[in-house]
């Protein structure tokens, strides 16, 4: 693997109601989710900027293979300028704050844990 590339290339977040989940992510993170149908799979594409660092992904509604979880599986970290900005919109958007802004270390910055409207545990990270 190239040392100039982050190891995560794509993320898929399971959802049970794509419209509801898209509203949550659009409200909290202030970006648009583009919905597309692929056979039985309904996807909501998160913004992707190929020239930028980090990974993008999609919200995925497909009952046969995707199940939201607040307790198990990977935790997706969304980048932020200041964790508190997104935290201020979580509950209004239908989510729950599990852990307020917490310093990881001076070098790494801060994080917070939330659940989205589908029951997924996700995190927010900022340097300040």
Characterize the structure shown:
- By secondary structure, this protein is α/β, with parallel strands linked by helices.
- The protein has helices spanning 18-29, 83-90; strands at 10-14, 34-38, 41-45, 56-61, 76-79, 96-105, 109-115, 121-126.
- Strands 1-4-3-2 form a 4-stranded mixed sheet, with helices on one face. Strands 5-8-7-6 form a 4-stranded mixed sheet, covered by helices on one side.
- Helix 1 (18-29) packs across helix 2.
- The longest helix is centred in the N-terminal third of the chain and has 12 residues, at 18-29.
- The model has no long low-confidence stretch (mean pLDDT 92).
**Class based on secondary structure composition and strand pairing:** alpha/beta
Shape: globular
Going across the biggest sheet, name each strand in turn: 1-4-3-2
Strand/helix succession:
EHEEEEHEEE
Largest sheet composition: 4 strands, mixed
Task: Please sum up the structure shown.
By secondary structure, this protein is of the alpha/beta class. The protein has helices at 18-29, 83-90, and strands at residues 10-14, 34-38, 41-45, 56-61, 76-79, 96-105, 109-115, 121-126. It is built from two helices and eight strands.
Strand and helix layout:
Blueprint: E1 10-14, H1 18-29, E2 34-38, E3 41-45, E4 56-61, E5 76-79, H2 83-90, E6 96-105, E7 109-115, E8 121-126
Parallel strand pairs: 1-4, 5-8
Antiparallel strand pairs: 2-3, 3-4, 6-7, 7-8
Helix pairs in contact: 1-2
């Amino acid at each position: 693997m190239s040392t100039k590339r982050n190891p995560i290339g794509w993320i898929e977040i399971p959802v049970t109601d794509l419209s509801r989940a898209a509203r949550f992510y659009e409200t909290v993170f202030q970006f648009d989710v583009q919905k597309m149908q692929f056979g039985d799979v309904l996807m909501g594409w998160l913004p992707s900027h190929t020239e930028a660092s980090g990974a993008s992904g999609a919200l995925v509604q497909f009952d046969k293979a995707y199940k939201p979880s607040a307790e198990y599986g990977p935790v997706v970290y969304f980048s932020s300028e200041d964790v508190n900005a997104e935290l201020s919109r979580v509950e209004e958007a239908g989510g729950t704050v599990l852990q307020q802004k917490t310093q990881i270390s001076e070098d790494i910055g801060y994080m917070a844990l939330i659940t989205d409207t589908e029951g997924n545990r996700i995190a927010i990270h900022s340097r300040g």
